[in-house]
Amino acid sequence: MTNSTKRDLHVLIVGAGTSGLLVAQGLKKNGIAFTIFESETSTTYQTRPREWGMTLHWGASHIASCLPEDLAARFHEAYADPSLTPDAVTGLPIHNGKTGDLILEMGADQPVRVSRKKMRNLFSEGIDVQYGKQVVRAYVIEDSSSHDNGRVKIEFRDGDHAVGDNVVGTDGAKSLLRESIVGFEDAQLTTIPVNLFNFSYRFDPELSLRIREHNKIFINSIHPDHGTMYWLSIMDVPDPDKPETWSFQVMQSWNDNTTPPSVDLATNEGRLKFFKARCEEYAEPWRSVGRAVKDGTTIPMDRLTYWEKSKKWDNRGGRMTLCGDAAHPMTPHRGQGLNNALQDASNFVSIMVSVSKGSATLAEVVQAYDDEVLERGQTEMDISLKQSYFVHDWDKLMQSPMVKIGMHQVKKGEVEESA
Ligand SMILES: Cc1cc2nc3c(=O)[nH]c(=O)nc-3n(C[C@H](O)[C@H](O)[C@H](O)COP(=O)(O)OP(=O)(O)OC[C@H]3O[C@@H](n4cnc5c(N)ncnc54)[C@H](O)[C@@H]3O)c2cc1C
User: Fold this and answer.
1) Which ligand 1 atom is the nearest neighbour of the CA of 133?
2) 229, 287, 224, 245: which is closest to 81 by C-alpha?
3) How many CA atoms lie within 13 A of 71 on its CB side?
4) Cβ atoms of residues 177 and 137 within 8 Å
5) What is the mean pLDDT of the segment spanning 49-69?
6) CA distance to 28, 130, 242, 274, 376, per residue, from 174 (Å)
7) Contact between 328 and 377 (Cβ < 8 Å)
8) Are 165 and 351 in contact, with CB atoms under 8 Å apart?
9) Where on the tree of life does the source sit, at the highest rank (predicted)?
10) What is Dmax (Cα atoms) for the chain?
11) Domain 10-82+115-189+308-392+410-418 has CATH 3.50.50.60
12) What does the alpha-carbon distance between residue 355 and residue 344 come to, in Å, rounded to a whole number?
């Protein structure tokens, strides 16, 4: 605490995803100057070929501090099904995929499914996003003859640049800001041998109703013979009374060591054939879902990643830091990435408020912020990784974090005891 006068600050935010936009809203609410840059154009931002839903649970408590009251009151508009209330379900039911028997309900704090796209659109209201600005590099200016000496500069692919007092990288799992801070090698992610099919689909009204009979927002199953996880969740409900308008998120994930040698995952035809063959081994409604997916449907596949090389980074005296997936890209099987991103955003805003009030220096508060984000991020990357392996191994399923702690937030030290 060295600065006692109110300071003018200008924060640069790189990436208009959920975390970047929430930071922007929080800074705006507190009268702190910022500029937010997004690599996509305003058109491609709205027409992304891939969108997904996310389970929001404990992280919801970090939203209201950043949003203005009117937007916070409209938050349900970002739900996959805006007609539901946060207490609509108590947890995620997990079934034996072969028999359909319910194994357990994975507990969570008021889980709701939110749409990534709807959340971005709600959080961008009132925010002047600079679209089409892909940041390629960020650094602290070291030029004693410049009046910007000691401030931070970001450079864009189009040759343009911007200068501010500090920069926060909210540019997602493949963050370029992370590369600028820790260097190319140390920023790289580790790929694990777990494959994920993830796409959205609209079914006929009868099947749509049947899927939601079990649980209003999601149902999951694990197949005992090969450990494949087969997930169905509600993704969009334009009209609650018209099931033909609903779309669902369909995911299958499995450990690559269970992929039969004859399967061709390199082509869409091969992936679709494999997806449908797997579905035939499942009980209802998972089997019918496979049968309903039409020939020619695109089945995107990802290999899961996380930041194994994560370690304390040099924030250049508080000038450069990370938030959200940029800081802790993790595997998705415990549904924690968004929830942690929201906590990061809210924490970042509150440290900027203390700097702007003159009650702390950038260097002090960003270091404290970084230490907490790193510890929480590493803890969750680690436990989510365990979950991603255990969930695909029937024999270990009952020892998995999912069974022992559900989706609840875990503190450092609880990991070993609970996983
Ligand atoms: C299949 C799947 C399911 C998931 N399910 C859940 C769940 O149930 N619960 C949960 O909590 N989490 C879940 N997650 C994780 C969640 O999606 C992420 O943690 C969350 O979206 C991260 O938000 P973000 O704002 O940090 O990053 P992003 O949403 O990725 O936003 C980053 C933004 O930065 C922009 N950008 C990128 N590079 C640049 C650049 N160089 N310059 C400028 N802009 C740039 C991008 O275009 C993007 O708009 C899931 C993830 C996946 C893949």
Assistant:
1) 43
2) 245
3) 23
4) no
5) 93
6) 27, 20, 38, 29, 19
7) yes
8) no
9) Eukaryota
10) 73
11) yes
12) 17
Mutate to test the pocket of ligand 1, among 22, 36, 54 (most ligand atoms within 8 A of CB): 54
Asked if residues 250 and 289 have their Cβ atoms less than 8 Å apart, the reply is yes
pLDDT of residue 323: 98
The pLDDT tens digits of the residues spanning 340-397 come to 999 999 999 999 999 999 989 999 999 999 999 999 999 999 999 999 999 999 888 8
* Phi/psi of residue 320, nearest 5 degrees: -135, 125
Q: Is 339 in the pocket of ligand 1 (CB under 6 A)?
A: yes
Alpha helices in 30-159 (DSSP H): 69-73, 116-123
Q: Look-up: residue for tokens 């609509």?
A: 88
Mean of pLDDT values over 325-332: 98
Phi, psi of 249 (to 5 degrees): -95, 130
Kind and range of the H or E run holding 289: helix 286-292
> What is the distance in A from the centroid of ligand 1 to the CA of 365?
25
pLDDT in tens, 216-265: 999 999 999 999 999 999 999 999 999 999 999 999 999 999 999 999 99
> What are the backbone angles phi and psi of residue 244, rounded to the nearest 5°?
-70, -15
Between the two ends of the chain, the Cα-to-Cα distance in Å is 40
**Percent with pLDDT over 70 in the chain:** 97
- Is there a contact between 105 and 122 (Cβ–Cβ < 8 Å)? no
What percent of the chain shows pLDDT beyond 90? 86
Chain segment 106-155, per-residue pLDDT in tens: 888 889 999 999 999 999 999 999 999 999 999 999 999 999 999 999 99
Do 92 and 112 meet the contact criterion of CB atoms below 8 Å apart? no
Q: Which atom of ligand 1 is nearest to the CA of 198?
A: 1
User: Residue 160 corresponds to which tokens in the numbers above?
Assistant: 């343009």
What is the rounded distance in angstroms from the CA atom of residue 333 to the CA atom of residue 318?
32
